[in-house]
Amino acid sequence: MRAMTTRSISARASAGGALLAALLATASLACGGAADAGERRRAARGEGEAAPAAWGPGFVVWESNRTGAFRIFRRDLAGGAAVQLSSDEPGRDHCCAHVSPDGQRIAYLSIPGGGRKYLPADTRGQLRLMLADGSLDRVVGPAARHYGEHRAAIWWSRDELVYLEGDGATVRLDLSTGKRERLLAPTGGGEGRLVDPTGRWATGGTVAFCRIDEATGRVLDATPLGGCQPYFDPAGRLGYWAAGAGGPIDAIDLETGRSRTLIAKRDPRLPSDRGYVYFPMLSPDGSLLALAGSDGEHDHFRADYDVLLLEVDPATLEPLGPAVRISDHPAVDRFPAPFRVEPPRRRARPPVRTTATVPAEPGWPAVRDGLAFAWEQATAPNRIAPGEASDVLEPRGRAAFDRRGRMSLGGGWFEARAETATRLLAALRDANTMTLTALVEPERPESPGGPIVALSVRPGRRSFVVRQRGDRIELVLRTAESGPAGGEPIPLTRADASRPAHVAFTFSPGRLAVYVDGEPVARRPVAGDFFHWREGALLFGAEAGSDERFRGAISHVAIWARELAEPEVAASAERARAALASAPQPPSAEVEARLVARSRVPTLDEISPYRSALAVEEWEVVEAIAGVPLAGRIRVARWMLLDGRPTPESAEPPGTRRRLRLEPHAAQPQLESVVLSDTLPPAPAGAPPLGFDVGWSGG
């Protein structure tokens, strides 16, 4: 195979040839005209909107089963009825329509019909070519195929068409001469790859935009990004694809590998009932982006998808306004391909969305747009929006709130209500993207660790878990590209017991960014979406179905159903850390001590309806380790009942030796309503004030 060289579209463009001359001699190519008004032209009912007049003349073609089998249909941008272009062909379906750069011809594939799922990639069909009005339909590739879904060909110029042969090889067909040139050999996996108009990049059914080595012509494999239906912009600078189930539609800079979202799942620029989108395709000039959307139905062969069209900036592919609904029919209208006759007029580009504006008003979280869950601390409103109900977390086992309102976990956990978990799951699945932020302070980095926050049915069937593993905090995320237990653990930060860390990550199909204390620290490709997520429990300090437990403190947990920009993550971190630091810091002490005596532990009936209680104990200081120097005998309040059950501390006999971390009991506002049993004789005059064992989570 010859070495491929970088060539521009304009360099390949030819003046035409024998085939084009024959076509021009026998048919009118006016964009609005139809040369043949025969039996195969079936007008559908009046369809969606007309495109804005500023878009100029043009049309969209797509595949639809509105007549029974899938056929190629066309509708002008100016409006009117959809018209069937491809002929009726018993036992066959028509798919993969793609418009030539000059808008005069349409390539499409004819394949065995009647399927209710995508045919295997190695299914052979016919690559056909017709004029834009449906006339002069002929076979130009007798054994051709698509790459798994309905992408079969890509125009390099008005006379150069690159397509996949039946064996999976990539071939360039010169329509002016009929000459065929093999560009890429079959992949061996039965998939096949299309090559972009510059000859430098290849992609196929597995979404990976792979560089082609200029010297050898070898395809250099790239990291799969997940999703489906990848394609290239006409200039060969960007790739784009359906990154998740029903969205988002993402684009990637082929040189830098940086990806971004063009259209979110249920993007506000889409019709409210057509926000579940697939099938992206640009016009040859790169100024129109066609999609098809449903109202949440997924099935590509039965759901009511309609064609949508957006004007975009050809340089960035950023949408310039809302979508226009091109088709409005209960059949499956999918895989559209648009064409625009006139170059777009110069228009102001939309603002770059990475420069997010953070509201000036104080408070946490810093931004609420897309907020799906928010828990600041025990006495905060903890609601996702004004007027919404507060999200309540119930302690289970060895779990309580500390003086700063944080979840303090000594082997127990906190559980969100079922309706909260259901709401969060629905929001994240509906967006296929998320951001999570939390302030985390492990008790001991040398401990085995455990789940910090998890949305999960069980470890073998989870949505996500953020957990401590030894001295590392990591994320395990399930996507459509991983197993039910999730993918490989993704490191987030080190577990630091000396200070709280603000840990955050943002995810959208194909990319994940990690932040620590508001600063970006890592970016990596992570393929897949949330299509397989199922109902589960939202727990803090544990994961459903697991005995592992996190020991430490958690607060300021927020989850958004969108990617936060860097300034938004930074502001969220700053405000969370400032709120925590503003809490008064009482004196503290750390001692090695021996238990002398304990007050009587009350029964659960005696404290009803409460389920937790403290008792005062007397300890003999063996060694003062840090903080306020203590000596002799001290009084300490420790947990004896939690979540209706006796704690291990309540069974410790006199003589037990233990390290205690103490703060004044009077500095613990969270304990004001907790039963405190004190049946010991009065403490002698001048004794230190009653302390509280704040290190109980390490017990």
In short:
The protein has 699 residues and is mainly β. The chain has five helices and 46 strands.
Average pLDDT rating: 89
Tell me the name of the CATH homologous superfamily of the largest domain.
Answer: TolB, C-terminal domain
Number of discrete domains: 3
Q: Helicity range of the residues?
A: under 10%
Question: So what's the CATH class of the largest domain?
Answer: Mainly Beta
- Report the C-alpha radius of gyration, rounded: 32 Å
What does this structure look like?
- This protein has 699 residues and is mainly beta.
- The protein is 7% helix and 39% strand.
- It folds into three domains: 9-340, TolB, C-terminal domain (Neuraminidase), CATH 2.120.10.30; 371-581, Jelly Rolls (Sandwich), CATH 2.60.120; 589-698, no CATH class.
- The N and C termini lie far apart (69 Å).
Task: Describe this protein with a few key phrases.
699 residues, mainly beta, Jelly Rolls, 3 domains, 8-stranded antiparallel β-sheet, 5 helices, elongated
